[in-house]
Amino acid sequence: MRQINIRTIAIGTIVTGFAIGSAAAAAQLKVGVSVEPREEMNTVEFMDRFGTLARYVGTASGAEVRLTFGRDLTRELARTRSRGYDLMIGPAHVIGSAMRYGYEPVARFPGEEHAVFVTSATSGVTSLAQARGKRLALPPADSLATYLARGELNAMGVQTKSMFKEIRLYRYHEAALLALELGAADIAVAEQRLAEQWLARNKGRILHVSKSAPMTGVAMLSTLDKGLKDRVRAAFMVPGAKAAGTAEVGLDVRTMKPIAVKEYEYVSTLGYFTPRLLDGVKIVSAEEVAAMMGKGAVLYDTRSEEEYRGGRIKGAQWLPYAEKSAKEVGFDESKDKIDLARIADRNAPVIFACNGAECWKSYKSSVAAVKAGFTQVSWFRGGYPEWIAKGHPAESEPAKAALPR
Fold it and tell me: 365 near 352, Cβ under 8 Å?
């Protein structure tokens, strides 16, 4: 007997539970689906597509599946570092990040993704070189298209914010293209399929196409029970008769192919990695952090409350960094918020950490602390992932946050 439960939680994520067979006997499988910010994500058909896929995986693996739709890719990328799901289904940069933080590649759907820079005929821009000083419309900061676009510019030695007069982030790919259509932007970035659909209805041209990235992929946590991992892998790579049902909703498991880490090397290098140097700040390792904390230095965890409660460096205090600015050197500090006034002694040694080299919150906190007059600032760039990998003690679920709100 199968029971289906759907509820909406405060952060806007849809959670669906599938209890397959005997709930007492079935293995638990937390499945996270992260998707590109397209308008279709709000449709019933979209939910049904991945719901059908989850039902198939649960049936094939004999697991009780808990399915979460993640609309916020910043949050989903953080979950790869904190290992928040057993099985992840998502775009290339999310799967690439997962494989760096303890997940094994499983399979992916056929095809390639590209980000394109597109302009309208009225903009007068005919090449990317002519885009300097123009207005740029982007999908959300951690969408694959924006990830690829910024990465391509970085590879050209161009800082995005210095090239364009104005950069605006929109909620969906379609909204960025609409800004172009309405004259609110001169150039827009979107995934190639949507950009080509837009060009079929509007006059314009593609200025630049990024290198390719794999289509939607699947990765699973390496620490799962071996028997369960084998069954999950077989569900995708040796699909049974019930896999035919997935074709009816547009996710035909029978077309999937195995993937390797190498396929994600390109997109992985485009991540918003923090710098390796920071003026006025000492960058420290896990071993150095442990020694410093042993001598009384305080480590401040700048991640979200959910991440802090879920697992943190033992003894860390919570000092969240509310991040709205771009993940880049020279970020706009006025868009962000951190309450450094909670730290009384600005001459005492302080350490800032978050979720590893891709997480900018501790970098930005360190920059803010130096500007605020702190004299002994250390930045634990490797953060919580490095701490755990080195076997240092962690803790979770405090009765209350270490610092008052």
Answer: yes
Q: Measuring CA to CA, which residue among 394, 385, 395, 382 is closest to residue 288?
A: 382
Q: How are beta strands 187-191 and 115-120 bridged, if at all?
A: antiparallel
pTM of the model: 0.69
Q: Reduced to 3 states, what is the DSSP secondary structure of residue 282?
A: strand
* Whole-number Cα distances in Å, 287 to 183, 332, 376, 390: 53, 32, 18, 8
Residue of 246, 253, 252, 256 whose CA lies nearest to 48: 246
Whose CA is closest to 93, among 272, 328, 309? 272
* Closest to 167 (Cα-Cα) out of 365, 327, 358, 363: 327
**Structure-token match 């990830």, residue found:** 147
Laid out side by side, the sheet with 103-108 consists of 3-8, 14-19, 63-70, 27-34, 87-90, 217-221, 103-108, 257-258
Catalogue the E-assigned strands of 266-387: 282-283, 298-301, 312-313, 317-318, 350-353, 377-380
Task: Chunk the chain into consecutive blocks of 10 residues (it has 405) and report each block's average pLDDT, rounded to whole numbers.
Answer: 31 39 66 90 88 93 92 88 92 92 93 95 92 95 90 73 90 96 96 96 95 94 95 94 89 93 81 79 97 97 94 96 86 94 96 92 97 98 94 78 44
Q: Are 289 and 385 in contact (CB under 8 A)?
A: no
- Rounded to the nearest 10°, the torsion over CA 53, 55, 59, 60 is 10
